[in-house]
Amino acid sequence: MDKESMKLTNEAGAPVAENENSLTAGPRGPVMMQDVWLLEKLAHFDREVIPERRMHAKGWGAYGDLTITNDITKYSKAAVFKPGTKTECFIRFSTVAGERGAADAERDIRGVAVKFYTTEGNWDLVGNNTPTFFLRDVHNFPDLNRAVKRDPQTGMRSAQNNWDFWTLLPETFHQTTVVMSDRGIPASFRNMHFYGEHTFSLYNDKNERVWCKFHFRTEQGIKNLTDEEAAEVVARDRESNGRDLYEHIASGDFPKWKMYIQVMTEEQAKNHYENPFDITKIWPHKEYPLIEVGELELNRNPENYYAEVEQAAFTPAHVVPGIGFSPDKFLQGRLFVYGDAQRYRLGINYNQIPVNQAKHARVHDYHRDGAMRVDGNYGSEPAYSPNSMGDWSSQPGVMEPPLDLSGAMYAYDPKDDPTDDCFRAGGNLWRIMTEDKKELLIKNTANNIKPCTKNIKYRHAVHCFKADPEYGERISGAMEVDFDKVKELAKLTNNELNAATMDMKME
User: Fold this and answer.
1) Are residues 15 and 92 in the same domain?
2) Are 334 and 428 in a shared domain?
3) Does residue 12 share a domain with residue 68?
4) Chain segment 408-428, per-residue pLDDT in tens
5) What are phi and psi of 113, to 5 degrees?
6) DSSP label at 307?
7) Residue 95 carries which DSSP code?
8) CB burial of residue 40 (10 Å; 0-12, 13-18, 19+)
9) Residues 429, 318 share a domain
10) CATH number at residue 246
């Protein structure tokens, strides 16, 4: 670096004469208002911290590439999926409930958001390290957030609030079982799978649609921490996962994941034994096997954390031709809320921030003005459509195939669906666990729910019993609740169970 480039300037590029001592009236006098560089430094400092993400506040990121190794063009016409294609991407890993200063090795799901810089525009895949989520209707999303965040009275995390919310909504049961299992604390981002979670759609050049789920399976092997191991890690290093990712990439030990899809035809979806668009459910691999797509490798660290990780912004609304949405009710809400959160956090022009910009496709969106518009604002080009200049017309050739819809408009409760079973998946997971994993799940759950009142423990025990009698019996013993009472409560409907446990008044 030459000496000229190392000289300090102000925000407009002019030389700064002094950067340590304020202009004062005499050696001991007050500071002068005309010390404009001091005022600029302080004003910028006041505004350096932007609002943190409401969820996924603490994260780490890296760049890499997705290389397509298998031909899935019969399902999707997306250019990113053409065999042999290598697409640059940026990925952000995060915890979910914790704030920016939280420790990495906490019991929580891990958010994983990937931005693929494709030749047809950016594709954002937003998911987690679990194939399912707590909720299936986005109406409950703000409430989940508030339940897992800090208590409004104490300002502290509350197991009571958390488990009260979870146990009042039995749809959370499968995800709760996963979070309380050994998978609740991944040893590193490198040592975990991640998923798109939602059901998406793919459509090919014949406009034929299939439903799809995205999977990324680690090639480093699964590795998790116990509560005791995690406590030791946190005591030494609150940035354990971020440090692990950064140092492995810096040393040339690039982490990799195999990318797969699951595919379900529209006809199969109509006849599936449960709602295939319910994010709290899985598609069993025996029924819908994994189809290999390619390999994702992370091979470059960011140059600046704030510019590239903190300002990275993702929304599932960003898809490209050949990839579409589905009737997944939670996805439908996320299509709005993720982009809107970024507009609040970073400003209306957040997609002009370099890490968020499309790299291989020109942007012509008619969006104008707004704070921090820095790209020329499209100059003298027309700001309206249609226009007589023929500029920037729509492209009907990339339209998704039509989707047949039926039914009256109503606020449907999934519990009224006779095919709905909130406990099947959690029970199946319990039954395939080895004995040591079962013991760990019971121990983790009992420790986590210990501060809660007994009525909440009874609700969870009932859910476990409905998933599998052995699961219910063992968790009842660990939580020190009456198993005979659990079996009686299990005969109630969910609304009856919630009412009965509300009236227990147990401490």
Assistant:
1) no
2) no
3) no
4) 878 888 878 888 999 999 999
5) -125, 130
6) I
7) E
8) middle
9) no
10) 2.40.180.10
Q: Which position has the token pair 């909130």?
A: 422
**426 close to 174: Cβ distance less than 8 angstroms:** yes
End-to-end CA distance of the chain: 66
49 — phi, psi (to 5°)? -95, 110
- Reported as a pLDDT band with limits 50, 70 and 90, residue 4 is low
Residues with catalytic roles:
56, 128
Share of the chain above pLDDT 70, in %: 98
> Where is the domain boundary, 309, 336, 356?
356
Weakest-pLDDT range from 13-17, 77-81, 193-197: 13-17
Which of 61-75, 151-165, 406-420 is predicted most confidently? 61-75
Helices (H) and strands (E) in the chain, counts: 15, 10
Asked whether the beta carbons of 282 and 274 are under 8 A apart, the reply is: no
Determine the structural domain holding residue 490 and report its residue range: 421-502
Q: In terms of domains, do 317 and 296 share one?
A: yes
pTM of the model: 0.92
Which residue type sits at 143? D
Same domain for 8 and 100, yes or no, is: no
In the predicted structure, residue 393 carries a pLDDT above the cut 80: no
DSSP string of 311-327, one letter each residue: T----TT---TTEE--S
**Higher-confidence position of 406 and 159:** 159
375 domain residue, yes or no = no
Structure tokens at 356: 């968020």
